[in-house]
Amino acid sequence: MQGEFLARPLTPDLWTDFEAVMGPQGACYGCWCTYFRMPAAERKEASAAEKKAFMKARVERQRPPGVIGYIDGEPFGWVQVGPRADVPNWNSPRTVSRPLEEADAEDPAVWAVSCFMMTNRRRGQGLSHALLGAAVQFARESGARLLEGCPMEQAKQSKSVSLFVGPSNIFAAAGFREVAQRKAGRPLMRLSLSGAV
């Protein structure tokens, strides 16, 4: 890793740093990290500007929805992490990330690492490990009991935008273990933060 890494939870005063990571288009075709948050029909109709406003309002009124990563003070990365209930589309019965137990979707102590984003020039440098480590620390400090991810086992290249869910190797390296696989190449992985499984 080049430079000094630092991570900070996204609070309203850091909004411009979030904008810097998302870029002028809002990352992933103007998503602004709303994919798992907004109802699908509403998201499809919303413009990039409306998605940005939705996310900004979310940041302003509730606990930080994730963590921003910095190298030498420059914002470069984002990882969305929080209670499963905060990302309702992650819990849909039709998704590969659906919970093992239905109650987990509303349990404030069961958290999800649902999205990663990095600026172009920082991709492919192994920084996802640092971002995931920061997400684990934030979840632990916030009282999470379980932390889950639904990463991708393979992508055509390490810089692929399709890796917004994260590569499975970084989850394995952080101690997550597979608890289900509803689709080939997309394991649901879990880390216990309290000694429970």
Automatic annotation (TrEMBL):
Gene3D superfamilies from the UniProt entry: 3.40.630.30
Single GO term (MF): acyltransferase activity, transferring groups other than amino-acyl groups
InterPro entries tied to this protein: Acyl_CoA_acyltransferase, GNAT_dom
Key words, A-Z: Transferase
Domain N-acetyltransferase stretches: 5-194
SUPFAM superfamilies, per the entry: Acyl-CoA N-acyltransferases (Nat)
Originating species: Rhizobium daejeonense
Name the record gives this protein: GNAT family N-acetyltransferase
Keyword Isomerase: no
